[in-house]
Amino acid sequence: MIEAVTGIRRIRMLYLQLLYRCNFNCGHCFHGERLKHADAFTAEQARNLMRLMQRQHGTEAVTLLGGEPFVYKDLAHVVRYAKCTLGLAVEICTNGYRIGPRLREIAPCVDLLRISLEGIGNTNDLIRRAGSYAAALESITLARNLGIQIGATLTVNRYNIGEVADLARTLETLGVSQLKLHQLRPVGNAALRPEMLVTDPADYSVMRDQLQRTALGIDVVLDEDLSEDGARACAAPSARHEIDRIESDPRGALTMSCKAVGKDSHAFWYDKDADCIVHLPSSNDEVMLGIPDVVYSHA
Ligand code: SF4
């Protein structure tokens, strides 16, 4: 269905939000009110969608996220199916809070564990919850000891923008191979916290200068809104035959550009019961609007 409408044949990675529920309620979370919603994939539906994407679009990797994927009871089942049955590369994106026992259980099937942080120490804990920074660092150490490759992610906001270079150095010493930086977009909880937004683009220049001066060994990746050239104005998905990613929310709503995630701009849905993708166009959908992909660059 996606190819018939857009011409896109190949989609490299599926981001699969297994559930909305999370053990945190972060000040910037793009899910906002939906963190309380019960929508979730069953293990069977998750298996079906991964298999469909592989068959129809040659998808070779899955990133499991939420909400918090480690509170999803069938996580081990889904991870094993993705890795052992489909042969997908498996990444899990987690807040890293008290995940030890479950991580040990699935470690051999995980190619990359990406832990989200929102700053150093108290900066992180004020946005997330008390003790969450220490817990995340413990999980990083555990993952390293289990032989899992580790990445990290941070959404840049007014409170943590001055700490990015120091955090990158700390993560480097812990064996984290990549830090991915995202721009905070005013959706979900962040729409209610405008004081968290970085309003002066010059602050991003200062952050980039600090990163360059710090001579880091860790790979720091910036989404293009944080980069020197800024984002492209528009690039319709229909202009390409291959895209890097598609994301399913826990209801089955599909989003191709992460600039559209959280904005309800879906053109396609995964119908969980019928196990197929359907096209539900609207004047607000990402295909009609030509919402561009986020392109990443290295600091
Ligand atoms: S940002 Fe991540 S950890 Fe925080 S509430 Fe949202 S899903 Fe949970």
Automatic annotation (TrEMBL):
It comes from the Bacteria. Keywords: Iron, Iron-sulfur, Metal-binding, S-adenosyl-L-methionine. The keyword Metal-binding applies. The keyword RNA-binding does not apply. Residues 6-223 form the Radical SAM core domain. It holds the Pfam family Radical_SAM. GO terms for molecular function: catalytic activity; iron-sulfur cluster binding; metal ion binding. InterPro entries: Aldolase_TIM, Elp3/MiaA/NifB-like_rSAM, Radical_SAM_PqqE_MftC-like, rSAM, rSAM_sf. This is Radical SAM protein.
